[in-house]
Amino acid sequence: MLDIAKSERNKRISEGGVFKSYLTTEYGVEIETESFQYKISFYNEHTIRVHQTSHSQDCNPYSVVQSPKKISFQVEDNDNSLVITSESLDVVIDKSPILFTFLNKDGKILNQDEPGLGIQTQGEQKTIYKKLQSNERFVGLGEKTGPLDRSGNGYQNWNTDHFAYDIEADPLYASIPFYIGIHNGLSYGVFLDNSYKSHFNFGASNNRFSSFSVDSGDMDYYFFNGSVSEIIQSYTWLTGRMSLPPMWSIGYQQCRYSYYPDTEVLDVAKKFRDKDIPADVIVLDIHYMDEYKIFSWDKERFPNPDQMVDLLKEMGFEVVVICDPGIKTEGKYLPYDSGKKEDVFLKYPDGKYYEGEVWPGWCHFPDFTKEETRSWWKDMMKSYTDIGIKGFWNDMNEIATWGQMLPENIEFDFEGEGATTRKGRNIYGMQMARSAYEGASKNLDGKRPFILTRAGFAGVQRYSALWTGDNVANDEHMLLGVRMVNSLGLSGVPFSGYDVGGFAGNGQSNLFARWIQIGAFSPFFRGHSMINSHDSEPWSYGEEVEEISKNYIRLRYKLLPYIYHAFVQASESGTPVTRSLCIDYTTDDKIYAADFENQYLFGDNILVAPLASDQRYGKVYLPEGEWYEFFTDEQLAGGQEMIREYALEHLPLFIKASSIIPVYGDATQNSKNVGECLELHFYAGTDHSSTEYYEDDGVSYESSNGVFHRRLIEFAPSQKEIKIKEASGNYNSKIKKLKLVLHGFDQNELNNWKHGSIERKCYSYVQPISNFDPFEKDHRDNLKSENVFSTEIAYTNEEMVFNW
Ligand code: GLC
After folding, report:
1. CATH domain 2-239 topology
2. Cβ neighbours, 10 Å, residue 11
3. Ligand 1 centre and the CA of 624: distance in Å?
4. Closest CA to 100 of 48, 23, 64, 46
5. Could you tell me the distance, in angstroms and rounded to a whole number, from the CA of residue 473 to the centre of ligand 1?
6. Which residue, among 482, 480, 536, has the nearest Cα to 505 in the 3D structure?
7. 649 is catalytic
């Protein structure tokens, strides 16, 4: 008995197999063992794929958009190992059993298979065990709860609808099996490219290994080396980047489950205008539909949707509609009849359509892993796009059904390759978002659509923004949302957000005030709340919170050129809009501490330190460098923790010294009304810095034909020079006036300013609130700086140079 157990155990050790032969290919090597083939291929200098396969491959066709590239590398065949050397990365492959070690060019181990465990198989499940390095940290993995540093925790990837989830719940709606490991001043990334249910263990319940497992399919992963930001660039190069979303979708979006009838929708829109609170979008939740049937309108509540959309447009609003995938199984309902005719629905193995129950009742579900279905969905979407709707919010696409037990034997087309729920479930939401994106882009004839999704998988960023589902109105959720959005940013999804105010439950007014401040510094900025819960409009919590909300929403609009530029960066390099401090301050242990892990950079230069709603004293950590308090311009040395007092309307925000922040000081109403003045704010410092000012029509793809207005701005403090380079591109900028605003500059030095008058001013990004709570009045006057200098000149396309 004992012997059998022992031999079984021996068999289970080293199931990576023993090396038999190898072959050098154009892109890497292929190794044969008794049971497997390993294909090791370079995708670029920093990205290498390790694909263990048996003779029938089982891969994910949806996430990776690149193919292997020829780069220069050498292979050395030693007795016990194969060594692949390239310019930036070396891989040592032990032969018996097969074990991988990845090293940088200094010979330092980035990551290695755990020697005693390596790769193991249990039934269809395969697991790779990686040796836990000293003090190894793990970040990323997309929409996951938990801390920034995930060491000591384990997670599963299995897209799941989870109403009012617990702050430690796992899994949630979207799965991105990509993480970054950090240790000993080194970093590496791993993307497990397999859409079956997968499991990640970052040293949870053990001190020996980190591991990742797939329930079935090939063990197929990509290894990246480089700094954290280089790894994000490589990962988003591999899985694709988002194209620039419409400018209006970056503005404030107002949602509610649900606004109806149409008169209420119009009233809400009008209230924004009457109260002079900028906003771009009104979102329609499920009650716009006739009995929740997608592609239909409730005839009593919304008798003339086209007129309503027109009226909203006249008021400067775009409309986003919710789209659920379930098609009610009811005759004489066009999507049902035509879906059956075109045979677009998911089926059981016996060919019968799968039926599950959701909002409209019993439904069939389109198989978005089939080209014909995506094209059919595009045609169905015409009923929206024809009346001017350009925003599509894809919900319930995990797939969520009553009972929450999607049968595992449903068959998916998978572009003709075939798959069951086990492989298709994690992919479904992403392919629904893809159908919406591709369909709307075609229908809208050159106008950018806005697509939002709840479920997703690696690569979803190519099609859609993502929000973190049904959160709860409390402080823990507000801060968790920040971490999840930061984690999504680390995992290739730059356009994400949370329901500002909290979806489920009723929050207090202070909570809403804080949440809207933080939300103004989130890539996707939308207020939303559940049916029968407290409203989530900026005016729903009394006058004081209304004023705070108005101030921060306005601030969002003033910062649009800065934010839009961050979106340009995301679309060109994958750099997220909200940047966890682990990107730029990777080796600073403090930033991972529970007190500071929620802090992030919004764009290049604004540090946000989210505070819970009733905290009047905020503990903040400023990383190395020099910083400015955003509102007061107080100069602060980095590398220090501090406790500071914050009134309710004062979100802790800091600007890096030497920053350049472009601002539309006169922005009002919506993202189209940004005025004609571009303010460029310069913060004195010692480093040279640069940024770009980028403008295009914000709605079309013409920018890819050169119709943009783009210019480099350089700030060289030691040379006492500001240079605004000549503009490039064929777009006629709306800007007529340039205002330079100088923060932290020495008045004596500025006496040498050579370009007309420069005046000392008091400046405030927001209106300090003074009408409320006399006890806090002192703080409230603190939202302004007494000490900035500014000058105005005409804006031209030629190079402009300023010296002092
Ligand atoms: C889901 C969504 C939520 C929406 C509701 C009704 O719970 O996550 O945002 O309001 O469905 O459509």
Report:
1. Immunoglobulin-like (2.60.40)
2. 9
3. 42
4. 48
5. 15
6. 536
7. no
Catalytic pick among 298, 470, 584, 629: 470
Please give the Cα distance from 111 to 467 (Å, whole number).
Answer: 32
Taking the domain 579-803, which CATH number applies? 2.60.40.1180
Name the burial class of residue 345, with classes exposed (0-12), middle (13-18) and buried (19+) by CB atoms within 10 angstroms of its CB.
Answer: buried
Selecting among 113, 149, 367, 395, the annotated active-site residue is 395
The rounded Å distance from CA 715 to ligand 1 centre is 46
**Token pair listed for 572:** 């060109």
- Distance, CA 764 to ligand 1 centroid (Å)? 38
Where does the chain hold its CATH 2.60.40.1180 domain(s)? 579-803
Q: Which of 398, 438, 604, 629 is catalytic?
A: 398
Q: What percent of the chain has pLDDT over 90?
A: 93
Task: Give the position, in ligand 1's atom list, of the atom nearest the Cα of 258.
Answer: 10
Reference 591, options 579, 575, 577; nearest CA is: 579
Share of the chain above pLDDT 70, in %: 97
Q: In the structure encoding, which two tokens stand for residue 556, read together?
A: 């969002």
| pLDDT digits 0-9 by tens, 126-150 | 999 999 999 999 999 999 999 999 9
Residue 676 reports pLDDT greater than 70? yes
Q: Which of 109-118, 214-223, 378-387, 759-768 has the lowest mean pLDDT?
A: 759-768
Q: What pLDDT band is residue 786 in, cutting at 50, 70 and 90?
A: confident
Q: CATH 3.20.20.80 region(s) of the chain?
A: 252-467
Please list the residue range(s) of the chain that carry CATH number 2.60.40.1760: 2-239
Q: Which amino acid is at 463?
A: Y
Give me the pLDDT at residue 4, please.
44
Residue 1 pLDDT grade (very low, low, confident, very high; cuts 50, 70, 90): very low
The predicted pLDDT at position 569 comes to 98
Give Cβ neighbours of residue 583 (< 8 Å, ≥ 6 apart): 228, 229, 232, 490, 575, 576, 601
What is the DSSP code string of 604-644? TTEEE----TT-SEEEEEE-SSEEEETTT--EEESSEEEEE
Residue among 322, 498, 533 whose CB has most ligand 1 atoms within 8 A, to mutate: 322
Q: Which residues contact 352 (CB under 8 A, 6 or more apart)?
A: none
What pLDDT shows up at residue 14? 52
695-706 residue pLDDT tens: 999 999 999 999
pLDDT value, residue 495: 98
Please report the pLDDT score of residue 17 as a whole number: 81
pTM of the model: 0.97
> What average pLDDT does the structure give for the chain?
95
Q: Atom of ligand 1 at shortest distance to CA of 163?
A: 7
Give CA–CA dist 382/738, Å, rounded: 43
pLDDT tens sequence across 234-271: 999 999 999 999 999 999 999 999 999 999 999 999 99
Is 395 designated active site? yes
Q: Looking at the CA of residue 531, tell me the nearest atom of ligand 1.
A: 10
**Is-catalytic flag, 588?**
no
CA of 393 from ligand 1 middle (Å) equals: 10
The class of domain 252-467 in CATH terms is alpha beta
The preferred substitution site among 172, 287, 396, 397 for testing ligand 1, maximizing ligand atoms within 8 Å of CB, is 396
CA of 293 to the centre of ligand 1 (A): 15
User: Which residues does a 6 A CB cutoff place in the pocket of ligand 1?
Assistant: 257, 285-286, 322, 395, 454, 469-470, 503, 528
By most ligand atoms within 8 Å of CB, the mutation choice from 254, 257, 320 for ligand 1 is 257
How do 125-131 and 281-284 pair as beta strands?
unpaired
CA distance 727 to 709: 6
pLDDT at position 55 over 80: no
